[in-house]
Amino acid sequence: MKEYAPCYIYSKKMIDEACEELKRELPGFDFLYSIKANPFEPVVRTIASHGFGADAASWREVEESLACGIAKEDIYFSCPGKSAMDLRNAWDKCVLVADSLHELTLIQKMAAERDTTVSIGLRVHPQYAMGSGTVSASKFGVDLEQMDELKKTLAECPNVRINGMHVHLRSQVLDAETIGQYYEDTMKTAVQLMQECGIAMEFINFGSGIGTVYDHVKEEPVDLAALREKTAVLMEMNKELNARLIIETGRFVVCHAGRYLTPVVDKKTSHGTTYLIVPNGMNGFLRPAIAALIANVAKGQPVPGMEPLFTNDNEFEVHVLNDAVEKETVNVVGSLCTALDVIRNNVEVNKSEIGDLVEITNAGSYAFPLSPQLFSSHSIPAQYLETEEGLVRE
Ligand SMILES: Cc1ncc(COP(=O)(O)O)c(C=O)c1O
């Protein structure tokens, strides 16, 4: 792999397995892939081949989903702050999900101009939290405290027909009980919305929540069998509604499948500390630098996850890929002109030489697109899908 690095390698086999695992373990749901987690087209095509639709957070992600063969009925465009241009660019190419009362009025105006009626979803900010959290203010969705304003706005939007609801409260939850309870609360909210606003609930999008293991020492994967049992009540409730039940997922299907490779280009010692210097450190993969920054500030105190930038203090493994038996403790750092450009401090790895490859795991989600690739005008790492036939670039 040396000739390809710095690069991301995504394993098609692992993506295939994760997609099939979700489908097998959670029957009764349709799945959307959250493109933002990893928009690399060969990855999106792989996931689409398993029948996943798309959770698109911009009109460009809508376009990409279409280009990857996803049907427009299976592309849900949901994000806060959609401008008129965003809506125009996505019009008739996906299911629009209004995120505010203002967006409802924008969509009404566009539908009236086109002399048509449009069916859309509504993202809501519900009156329950997920797990032990508390209900707090949010920029996402229409606050259900404002039910009266919602009804009034809907009455002023004769060309808009709400036919579904979207909620997403948290990512990276590993407790099946918490996720199951959240699904149940969401289902009840959908029924309430349907009754109070006279909405035909053709789809209920429960958003994401299903997490993946980052720290193999401290974390356990979501017990999907237990979650399936918890969802039995939903399936029962849905017998009457007959809505499309949707789960969104990003990291679950791609996080583990990705690894980041970058070569050691220099090795030096300062005050007894050995540094391995690699190109495209934080400007290739940002999250390790954020984890190192937080570790510096937290000084051993636990810090809650702040997705999608930080999960926990042991969210990656760092390896030197050689056969050396001897180990050494090093700081793996990037080549930018900032001391914050750190992959991992004080990590034990195989004793290395210049030219060896450093591998960082869990690099399949929120990695390439979430990193400041343009900073300092370095080269940009390549991305490859690893298939049985070899590496695919596009
Ligand atoms: C609305 C929405 N859905 C789904 C996701 C995907 O989350 P995850 O990658 O944790 O599955 C996100 C992530 O930010 C999101 O904002």
N→C terminal distance: 18 Å
Radius of gyration over alpha carbons?
23 Å
Please tell me the overall pLDDT. 96
The dominant shape is elongated
Largest sheet strand order: 2-3-4-5-6-8-9-10
| Number of separate domains | 2
The percent range for helix content is 25-40%
Assigned CATH architecture of the largest domain: Alpha-Beta Barrel
For the record, the CATH class of the largest domain is Alpha Beta
Q: What is the number of helical segments per DSSP (H or I, 4+ residues)?
A: 11
How many distinct beta strands? 19
Q: What profile does the largest beta sheet have?
A: 8 strands, parallel, barrel
H and E string: EHEHEHEHEHEEHEHEHHEHEEEHEEEEEE
Strand content: 15-25%
Bound molecules: pyridoxal-5'-phosphate
Helix/strand-derived category reads alpha/beta
Regions with little confidence, pLDDT below 50 for 5+ residues: none
CATH topology of the largest domain: TIM Barrel
CATH superfamily of the largest domain: Alanine racemase
